[in-house]
Amino acid sequence: MPEVLPDAVNLVKAAGFDIIILETAGIGQGDSRIVDLVDLSVYVMTADFGAPSQLEKIDMLDYADMVVLNKYEKKGSEDAIRDIRKQVQRNRKAFDQSPDAMPVFGTIASKFNDDGITAFYHGLLDLIEDTKQIQYKSCLPKTGKKASSSQTIIIPGDRVRYLSEIADTIRGYHETTQIQAKAVRNRAHLMYTLEVFENKDELSSQTLLAELKKAVDDMSAGVDPETDRAIEEFNDRKTRYQQEELVYQVRGKEFRAPLFTQSLSHSKIPRISTPQFDDPAEQYKWVRKENFAGFFPYTAGVFPLKRADEDPTRMFAGEGGPEDTNKRFKLLSAEYPAKRLSTAFDSVTLYGFDPDIRPDIYGKIGTSGVSICTLDDIKVLYDGFDLCAPNTSVSMTINGPAP
Q1: 134-173 residue pLDDT tens
Q2: 339: containing domain
Q3: Is the peptide bond before 280 cis (omega within 30 degrees of 0)?
Q4: Strands 42-45 and 268-270, how do they pair?
């Protein structure tokens, strides 16, 4: 705890503030000095304290007026809050009261409008009134609970390692690529050697020829049919990109795009530079790691070529009310034949709430996104745009956490 903290508190008190909140960065098990500087103390913890016996080492459970168990959606939180309540009951020697009556709250701070947070909020107001005789009225109704009733989370408990699973899958993909590339290269070397000896008539060469054929067959058994198909597709696509134009389909519609441009000196410049690999193993590795645009793994894009009739521009806007955002859309798209509108909504709209004077809503209206709560707002938002036109598209951008 900083040595200058008491002086900082006195300075803020002299400024005449009604409430001063001190927050520590984590005090550990044995540092409860913060209690000497405050009238009321709240200890925030998680369920990762280990065995229940470890709770006896946490000084703040002796001194805190309220205890908050955050991240209540985590596995084991219900058992943890039971153990914490029992420990607080023992510390206070309040054996004539139920453990559930202890001022211990389960919250999910990352969840919008969490009833556990609301319960803690009301508990704090009641504590201020009881100890300081200062009453703060709230427009939020009391929940009648002391813990979050809904523990729904975005990532289920059995998928908390989903990023590791993705990483393991990608590593396995690249490992397979290396194994198959080595098998393809060894087969190619054996096939080249076989071609050299096939034109010789010596008896010794015939014996060697039989051994080479067997070696080629054995090595070919280690090459997957998908690997041979990838190499064949590479060469077919390479031939296609050497034509005058590329013909491809998107959603059943045929597109034709020129594959060469002409420089000022009238030289033909290819739009696609094809790899010049002769080694089939290198061809296979390139297909697996890069490939042509429009083909897996799509490192060059999901379409074979960029569109020639417009620049790929997204017109991003969203702030304040629908009238303000509509003006911004018209400004951004004024000089473009295509209207590619990307709409950002405020967090209140994303969570399906209407604008309100509630403190957890009022300050977020029209912030980091446009406020939309009625169909009429949508009509104002896109006024002047033909949403059915083929050169108009609208995307809904989530500019914050969504349920």
Answers
A1: 999 898 899 888 999 876 666 666 777 889 999 999 999 9
A2: 315-398
A3: no
A4: unpaired
Residues 93 and 233 in one domain: no
Does 131 reside within a domain? yes
Write the pLDDT tens digit of every residue in 69-85.
999 988 889 999 999 99
Q: Write the pLDDT tens digit of every residue in 382-401.
A: 999 999 998 899 998 775 55
Strand, coil or helix: 53? helix
Question: Quick one: tokens of 221?
Answer: 């058994």
Radius of gyration of the chain (CA): 34
Domain count, the chain: 3
Domain identity same for 172 and 76: no
**Main-chain dihedrals φ then ψ at residue 111, nearest 5 degrees:** -100, 130
How far is Cα 233 from Cα 254, in angstroms, rounded to an integer? 20
Calpha distance 261→308 (Å, rounded): 12
Residues 109 and 55 in one domain: yes
Residue 230, exposed/middle/buried by CB under 10 A (0-12, 13-18, 19+)? Answer: buried
> φ and ψ at 255, to 5 degrees?
-125, 140
pTM: 0.55
